[in-house]
Amino acid sequence: MSKVLRDVDRKQIEILRILSEYNGPVGSSFIKKELAKRGFFLSDRTIRYHLKLLEERGLVEGHEKVGRTITKEGLEELSRALAYERIGSILTKYLSLAYKTTYSPRDNAGDVVANIIIVDKKYERDSLNIISELYEGKLLPSPYYKILDEEEEYREISVPRGKTAILTVCNLTIDGVLIHSGIPLILRYGGLVQFLKGKPVRFVDLMDYEHTTLHPLEIFVYKRATSILRILKTGSGMIPANMREIPAPAREKTVEVLQEMADLGWNGVLKVGLPNEPIFGVPVSIDRFGISMVGGMTPAAAMVESGIQVETFAPHCMVDIRDMDRV
Question: How far apart are CA 7 and CA 5, in angstroms?
Fold first, then answer.
């Protein structure tokens, strides 16, 4: 991997990608709109900062007030970066975000992994009501959320005009707490779990995180394959969920950590299996046990079911839990 690729982060790669799609100079305002479509809600100042760094590295060229174009060196670097991205990108991204978690149940403080849901402002109240219903039904990983109003900025998120951003806590945060407690885990599958009479019974669809470049749960959401609101009403339906494996000797410690979080209002764990026991019909590797959790895409999926148009970016960024409100 080149030195430039080590230095250029994901945001700068996206800027290079945008510039590569146009023959002439592109201005920062247009770049901002394109980045928002791709899940990067950056302020004008942040975009100018990244463009300056790219220009200093010879990857883009400035044209006074007209904008920037990508250079030959920039195209070469983009090609290398995108080739590297495709290899295990989803699993690597997820584990990296989990590892960045600093949230401590003991202190109830620290950074958590957040999902972003973008809705029209008129749907803000309806969306929050759905989040409350999910929490009451124990189908929400965490009791925390954050609202960002139109054109509001938080860290490197900048909300488009006319929109509301709802930040919810991703269950990768729970993985991060387990990792920092000395518990090794392996993310295996994302899929749909069927509920009958209020109980999760089986996985009906699965995608392996290690062998995909797509977000598995996003696929099920946009295919409208879920029926979460029906679970809340009747106890039966389909919900996005995932599964991870942990070495059997760590089971007692795992249960202890999960209980500590449950005492603070964290939900969403569907099942903690026994060593060598299948999880909802899915076998686990020898001398490991499985855990299934409600997917972080669940709030967005429920909103889609209710007729609310959403844009989702999950998982997306780190958020200080002290900056969030409780459901």
Answer: 5
